[in-house]
Structure formats: C-alpha cells, structure tokens
Here is the input.
Amino acid sequence: MPKGLYIKTFGCQMNIYDSQKMADILLPLGYEIVEDVISADAILMNTCHIREKATEKVFSDLGRYRDISAHKTTKPVMIVAGCVAQAEGEAIMAREPFVDMVVGPQNYHDLPKLLAQVARNRAGSGDGPGRGILAIDFPEESKFDALPESTAAVDNPSQFLTIQEGCDKFCHFCCVPYTRGAEYSRPAEDILTEARALVDRGAREITLLGQNVNAYHGMGVKSGEWGLGDLLFALADLKGLSRIRYMTSHPRDVDDRLIEAHRDIDTLMPFLHLPVQSGSDRMLKAMNRRHTAAFYREIIAKLRDAQPNLAFSSDFIVGYPGETDEDFADTLALVKAVNFAQAFSFVYSPRPGTPAAAYEDQLPASEKHHRLEILQTVLHAQQLAFNQSFVGKEIPVLLEKTARHGGQVIGRSAYWQNVLVEANPRLIGQVIPVKIKECTLKSLLGDIVGVDGDIMRVA
Ligand code: SAH
Ligand code: SF4
Ligand code: F3S
Here is the structure.
C-alpha cells in the first residue's frame, strides 16, 4: 500500500517548483499524493516568510495539523519546508514539538536521509513523534545536482524551471537573502537538459525562475559565463518549445543582451514582471534598491524601443518606514507614466532581522491600508483598460487545464492573462487562436476561431 503524501504550498513560483521536486524525491520512497490531509501519512508544508500574514498562516495551519495528528493512531510525519523553515526553524520546533522535520530550501535533496532519521527517532520513542530534526544549512554542494529527474508526463503544458536561486541585493525590507542565501546560478548545460526533458514530457511553455532571475550568470555551454540573455537565445532553439518567460527580475540587472533577446526572440513572451517597489527616490534609497525612478523608466523605455509589443507588470510596497504623502504621490506618478498591464501591491510588513524592521518611523496600519487602496484603484483601472483593449481581437492562447465549470478550458494569453474558452480538453497543450468577446479585471473570455466544428466539440 502506498503511503499518502499531502503537500501544501505557500509563496512564490519557486516554492511551487520546489514542491514538485520534493514530490519527485518522495514518490519513489513509496508515497502517492493525496488531496485531503486527513488520509495523509506524511504532511509537507512548503512555507513563505515574505510578509507577516504568510508566516502567521503557517503557524495557524500547523495548529490544525497538530489536532488532526492527535486523533490518529499512527501520527503522520510532519515536515515543514521553505522559507519559514529556514528563518524560524528553531521557533517551529519549540512551539510545535509534533513537527518531525524542519528542512530549509537548500536541503531538500537530503529528504530521504532525513526521513530515515525520523523513522529511527520514532522507533526510539514509541509511535509518537521523536526528536525533531532541523536541517537548515547552506551546504557547499548544490542541491540541484542531487535532485532526481522525473519522467512522467507533465500535468500542465506550462512548467517552471529554476535557473538561479538566492539573492545578493539585500533590499532593506526583504527576508529572501536570509531565507534563500547567496546568489547561485545553475550551469547552462544543466538548464538546457532539464528544459529538453520538460518539452519531451509535454511542456510547451517554460518560465525560468529565480529570486533575482536576471542576475543569472551561470557557466556557459562549452566555455565562458552566460547571462540570462544568452540562455534565452539558446532556449529559443529548442524544438517544440512555443513560449518562454522568466521571473522575477531586478531593474539593475536588465542588460543589453536581455533587451536584444526581447527584440529578436519570437517565443519570448512580450510580458515582463519588473518590480519597482516605489516611485520615490528617497524611498528607493531607504529600501536599498540601488536604482532611481528615472533609471526604472529609462529601462522601460529601452525595452519598449526594442520591442514595442512589451507590456509590464510590477510589485509595489506602500507605507514603507518614513514614506510621506509626497513619496506616495511619486509612486502614483510613476504608475501613471509607465501604465502597467498588471501589478502586485502590498503594505509594508516588518520582517524580523531585516534593517527596515528596526526603523523608528513606521507608519500606522490605517495609513498604510489607505494608501494601498488608492494605489490599487489606479493599478486596477490600468489592468482593466489593458484587458479591454483585447475585446474584439483574435489572440493566440495556450490551453492549460480544464476549468471548474463544465466545458470550459483555461489558457493564457501571451501577456499572461487568464483566458476562458469552451474547448475540447484534448486541445490542452496547444496554442489556439481565440477571439475575445468579454473581459474582467482577472480574465478574458473568448471563442476559438478558425478551426472546424469538430475541434470545438466537448469530449
Ligand atoms: N525577488 C523578487 C521578489 C521578491 S518578493 C524581487 O526582487 O522583486 C515579492 C515581492 O514581495 C517584492 O517585490 C515586494 O514587493 C514584496 N515584499 C517583499 N518584502 C516585503 C515586505 N517586508 N513587506 C511587504 N512586501 C514585501
Ligand atoms: Fe528581496 Fe530585493 Fe532580493 Fe528581490 S532583489 S529578493 S526584493 S532582496
Ligand atoms: Fe516567500 Fe520564500 Fe518565495 S519568502 S516569496 S517562498 S522566496
């Protein structure tokens, strides 16, 4: 009988990729994925530490899992992975002794060894949880070398591929350099091999991932060092790969080669997530972002020059310590000047151990939320106008998965918008022309065009 493995993933795309890799490691040990936690023999929580709310959610869910565990005769193995594991491993062990293992993002390849240790610990203390294991080192060797390769067909034609990990930027608000460690770029050859394997397994779109993905500087194929631009040019030659994306980038690391990639590569999607955080130079300096608002706008202008079809998305933090009404007005001005297709905005959340958490001029929560509402009103209006510009047009859509409502399939436009169409699920994995008839803030709705009736028929 296979053992049930329940995986719960919080946080960014890199955590989604990591959860997939951890599943690849655990399934050969006799596990199968289960969708409900009650029937699980092992619970794996992959956690996020980026804002206080994300961390709180981890502790509240752990409380729930503790209760479930208490009612079972054989306690499920409880594993906490990810960025909260890295940042607060000892606190987790102290608060929740039922946790068997805390494993940081650089230690996943050791899971089989760590699980064997859990079994030994448990054997030494009856069937209850034994002494918890804390594995949060930053080992010398790269975990990527030790991760297994999966051969199963992909569950979605759009796949993630981590090419770079960690961050050396140390923005003053951010926990990532502490939870993920120093920047590390995988060798280009390894990435191309993994990309080829993904395409062979059915991937049509690959999104290259990194906390600071355009800081990529990996060992090139044959010789030298490659930047992200070089890697994109190499991936563009991969037969069967229809779409390439990458995230998340830092404005300071957009170089000429990357701009050329946007100019020359048809399969590189014309949508770039480029976080700016603030439009105020005073705030950008206090955040240690190492760029000004004008520099950001210059980069956008250069990219638009090279590729007029490009649309942009960004991240914003409002209510950073010391942010005045003028600073906030500068952010609104930048948003109006750039015109974003999409954006994520957050109120500043102090993270333990980061410089900004110790600043004295913290803003009251009410002011932070008030500003967030104003900013989001502007950003949402831009996003809706962007979506509306597609109504009546025919666009290529990569069909990805069936929707909850019968007969509908969810796909993505080149600009990463969700597109809902009535389609035969057999078309999943293909890029199909769709005529957009309606839109909302979050999605487009359309009909497949230019294909015969058979293709439309729902299986
Ligand atoms: N590596 C990416 C993303 C980092 S985290 C980058 O450099 O842009 C994703 C987003 O979370 C950030 O861009 C930032 O907008 C937000 N964020 C990070 N730390 C935060 C904090 N302490 N409070 C609020 N938002 C934060
Ligand atoms: Fe965090 Fe800044 Fe690094 Fe992005 S660039 S991960 S915001 S420290
Ligand atoms: Fe969260 Fe860690 Fe990603 S803090 S956003 S899971 S890098």
Summary: Residues 50-51, 173-174, 176, 211-212, 248, 250, 275, 277, 315, 317, 346, 348-349, 351 surround S-adenosyl-L-homocysteine (ligand 1) (CB under 6 Å).
